[in-house]
Each structure stands twice: as C-alpha cells, then as structure tokens.
Amino acid sequence: MSKKGKVLVAMSGGIDSTVTAVMLHEQGYEVVGITMKTWDYASSGGNKKETGCCSLDSINDARQVAVDLGFSHFIIDIREEFGDFVIDNFVNEYIAGRTPNPCVLCNTHIKWEALLKRADMMDCEFIATGHYAQLRKENKRFVISKGLDANKDQSYVLWGVSQPCLSRTMFPVGQFHKPAIKQMARDMGYLEIANKGESYEICFVPDNDYRGFLKRKLPDLETKVAGGNFVDATGKVIGKHNGYPFYTIGQRKLGVAFGAPKYVTEIQPDTNTVVLGDEEDLQRNGMWVGKLNLQKYEKLDANMPALTKVRYKHDGEDSVLNQIGDRVKVEFMTNVSAIAPGQSAVFYEQNDVIGGGVIFSNFNIE
Question: In terms of pTM, does the model score above 0.90?
C-alpha cells in the first residue's frame, strides 16, 4: 500500500474527475476508481440521446483512464437507491408546491454515502471527487470553502455533507482554475475528455423539461391539476393555469397574456392556486431555513452576520442569522428576489461555508 494512503475516486468520465484521479495517482496515492450509475435516460421517458455521467461513453472513458494508469476501476449500480430517494423527493416537492434541489440531495444522501460504503469495503482511507471546492480542518472541524475559480465554485451544493464524511474527503481540483484543469487533461493525453462540453441539466431530466418529467412520472397529474386559478395579491381570480406543480416562484412565462409582466409570487397547492404579482412583489427580506447542517461551527452565535445564497447562481446577500431550535431565521440587509421554498440556502463567512439548509418559507420583516 502507498505511504500516502488509498483513495477511492468518483470518476464520471469527465474532465474534473479524470484530472482528480491522475493527479492523486501522480502524487503517490493508491487510487481506486469508481463510477456510479445513478440513472438511465430510457426510463425517464425523454427523447434526448444519453450523455453525461451515466452514459456508456462516459463509463468507458473513466475505465480507460484506470487502464492507462494501472489502477482498479469499478462500476456500481445505485439506480434503485437514487430513484427511491432523489426522484421521489423531486416529485413530492413539486407536488407540495416547492422547488427542489436534487443535486444537493444526491450529494448529501446518495453519492457520499455510497462512496464511503464502498471505500470501507475496499479499505480506502479517503474519497475524492472533482468538485470545485476547498477543504481544511480548523478548530477540530472540517470546513468547506469556495473553489479558487469563482466561475466554477461548487461549495453551494456541498453544504449538506456531514463532518464524518468531510473528514475523509479530498477536492484536488478546487485549488485550480478550470482552464488549468483543461490544460492538465490535454497534457495528460486525454484530448477528447478535455474537449468535452459541460452539462448543467439535472441528470435524470435529460431534456431539461421538469414539467414533462412530472407528467411522465405521474400520468394522471395533468388531469388532476388542470384548470386552477391565477389570482392577484387580493385573491381576485385573473386567469386559469395548467396546474400548480408546473410553476415556480419568480416564473414569468405563464402561457397567458396579462397586458403587463406578471410573476409567480406564491404557490398554494391545497387549492391549486398560483398567486401572481409584479416584479417588486417578489422582494423579501426574511426567510426560515430548516433541515440544517452546520460545518464551520457547531452552533450559530446570536445575530451572526453572513453572506447568504438562496440559489446556486445567486451572488449572495448580507444577512443576519439567528438559530431558533432546528431552524434559522434569516434577515437580509437588502431585499432578495424570488426566494423559493424547497431550494437550498447556504451561509458563508467570507469564503467559508458556515452551513446551510432548506428554505421553508419567505416573508417580509417589518
């Protein structure tokens, strides 16, 4: 066994995980590659050609790297556990009138747990992924901070990873910019992998049409929810919609003309009602966040200042956090638009992830 230790590398066949595996191999770690089959597009009912981390081409690319460098590579099928947990949650959240974040759920409850389970079986001390984030130990806690490349930073989707999992995790590419990683892949001889495009779709919604996915998963859904009411802030009916699960907070394209732009400001699943308003009606300065996972600190101080992100591409806003039981009350210094229940809220102290949770509700603090 290598003096550096044995590491299980999650290999999708893409640029980042390929460079991760090669980098650790060259640093002297005993590398074991693993590719997780989480989903097959045929079962989703979509019509797009299978690409990305679950395709046969990607699996073969990952395997070829292992063959080239002489380390073991395994494929594990976790479609059943992925589907039961991530897919069911995805569907149930939309039915509840919320907007889910399946990538966070997958990282937290599926990929890391699956990796650590196999790591233990293979006597691997560490696991490594190609995420653009950085990790260090401080005051006996493992702290995730933003990746060096601000355009690729993925710390937002890692807020739910537990301390025991982080204690065995590596993020080798987090200390580099994406162009440097691409050049490394070329220098390593993996030109095709280096030139691969990147997908920003949900892996099990290959056509990026979540509404179509819901209809295929629940064939009678459209019939059950069609014909609900669009209402204004006073409750006045101003139109009919196609069913509340097919709308999200902040949505502007509604399929109905109102003479002036209208936005979804609230979803009321119990009555199949979608509330519309003007752009300013999306502004909120407070929210409740639950299902917490704290990373940098065991507990939040009262009135803790933080930069809070309410979606992946959100730059974040200055806020004050107050932990009350198992939830956090967040008060923003500046109004934030389109805070969607079901999405993740992640709290930062400069570049460090304090922790995060799931948005339960939004409101205005008077």
Answer: yes
